[in-house]
Write a structure and sequence with these properties.
268 residues, alpha/beta, Rossmann fold, 2 domains, 8-stranded mixed beta sheet, 8 strands, binds NADPH dihydro-nicotinamide-adenine-dinucleotide phosphate, binds (2S)-3,4-dihydro-2H-pyrrole-2-carboxylic acid
């Protein structure tokens, strides 16, 4: 028996980027039984759920939430703000960026609220999902949340809600920053006349092999950069030029701008 037991789950936004990762993962792993999941969206059954042809779909989030014990909010903040959901006496698990527990409580009546920040790696079962529970969240609720989040990867509870802003901009961004770096490297390779297929394979080797070499020892990144600089070779020249051109400043500016955006969303 899963941690969810006989509870019914409404997944609002079941066909979205995150929803279509979570729904099938929870079903496949037995976290929730197909008869206990209500999938909600406007457009109806999504192919990601083809293995469960009898799954219940609802185009009315209020009806889905009303019939569930656990309500997962996996919709965009602006869409949530158009909904009238009554989630009193329900556990609410929200994935929404920049929507505070206080706002969710105000608009849904829920008291047991968990905000979690998964990322796009949920689609390959590798999300890292920091989460924050309100004081009313029970020990059983925490087990339920852990079971749901674990279905798509790893998760940790955060002690302070405000830390979710940084989590949104860091792990929440998934592969976005790596994509930015890969794109910049591809442009540079092309600028230097490398044939397109060689440029692609070179950048793939840099970006996609790095995780295997750094997994589980990310704190060693500072030392790895220092080692290359001390080595004094060609990579040292490249890294030093990137640092001199403001690489760290650019990353710091990115994270600060993202956190500012999250905080502005919370006040919208
Ligand atoms: N994508 C990511 O990597 C991350 C996203 N988040 C947060 O997770 C939430 C979901 O994001 P994401 O999955 O990317 O969003 P998507 O836009 O991909 O999906 C939104 C989902 O909501 C449904 N939806 C929209 N309006 C309604 C409505 N009125 N009634 C019912 N269903 C509706 C859509 O289906 P339909 O169009 O059929 O109605 C769709 O299933 C967001 O709040 C985002 O901030 C957090 C961390 C990372
Ligand atoms: O870019 C976004 O808004 C989504 C939500 C959090 C991370 N990615």
């Amino acid at each position: 028996m899963s941690d969810i037991g006989q509870d019914r789950v409404a997944l609002i936004g079941a066909s979205g980027w995150l929803g279509r990762a979570f729904g099938p993962a929870m079903l496949r792993q037995g976290v929730v039984a197909p008869g206990h999941l209500i999938a909600a969206n406007r457009s109806g059954a999504h192919p990601a759920y083809d293995d469960w042809p009898d799954l219940e779909w609802s185009t009315d989030p209020a009806v889905a939430a009303g019939r569930a014990d656990i309500v997962i909010l996996s919709v965009l903040p602006q869409d949530f703000r158009q909904m009238a959901l009554d989630c009193r006496d329900r556990l609410v698990l929200s994935f929404m960026a920049g929507v505070s527990c206080a706002e969710i409580a105000d608009s849904t009546g829920a008291e047991r609220i968990v905000r979690a920040l998964p990322n796009a790696a949920a689609g390959i079962g590798r999300s890292y999902s920091p989460w924050f529970p309100t004081p009313d969240v029970t020990a059983r609720d925490r087990d339920i949340v852990a079971a749901i989040l674990s279905s798509v990867g790893d998760a940790d509870a955060l002690p302070r809600e405000e830390d979710l802003a940084a989590a949104t901009i860091l792990s929440g961004a998934g592969p976005a920053y790596a994509a930015l770096l890969a794109d910049a490297l591809l442009q540079a390779a092309r600028d230097h006349g490398l044939p397109e297929d060689i440029a692609r394979k070179s950048v793939e080797a840099m970006i996609c092999d790095a995780p295997a070499m750094m997994a589980g020892q990310i704190e060693g990144a500072t030392q790895l950069v220092a080692d290359y600089i001390d080595y004094g070779g060609t990579t040292a020249a490249a890294l030093s030029a990137a640092q001199d051109a403001g690489f760290q400043d650019a990353v710091r500016a990115a994270v600060t701008a993202g956190i500012d955006r999250v905080n502005a969303m919370s006040r919208e």
